[in-house]
Task: structure prediction
Amino acid sequence: MTIRTGGSVAWRAGVYWVWGRAKKGPGMLIRQLSAVAVGLGISVVILLALGVELPGIGGDSTPLGPLTSSGAGLGESVYNSNCAGCHGVSGEGQPDWQQRGPNGVLPPPPHDSTGHTWHHADGLLFRIVQEGGVIYAGPTTPTGMPGFGEQLSDGEIRAVV
Result:
């Protein structure tokens, strides 16, 4: 006796659906597959706009784990030396941080409940500090967040996150 998993059943249902559409003519199949592709694309855009981190699309939900008290002190030192100049000494960010400037770049956001960094996973924040805002914003969106991977060690980045 063969036990069919949900994935196998869904795959077979998909094959039968496509095969049934192909019998009705290639035009019908192309229109329906195009509608599915557009629907998936719209879904991904909506999820990204809501801040949902999708695997392989800028997201990294890897937890970094708790810091020791010495790690917290290191994080404060790294922040003051490398981050406070843009994000503010108290993490208050820049005025109008949600409005793009004339150069198309968003000003540095605050790092408190009024900003947006609180809802990102630690792993993604680590990558943004290491590689720059381009890993989250994408290669065609201007970003003012530089990568610090050349200046800071992984331990320093972990501590500041």
In short: Strands lie at 54-55, 58-59. The longest helix spans residues 26-49. The helical segments are 6-23, 26-49, 69-82, 84-87, 122-131, 134-137, 154-160.
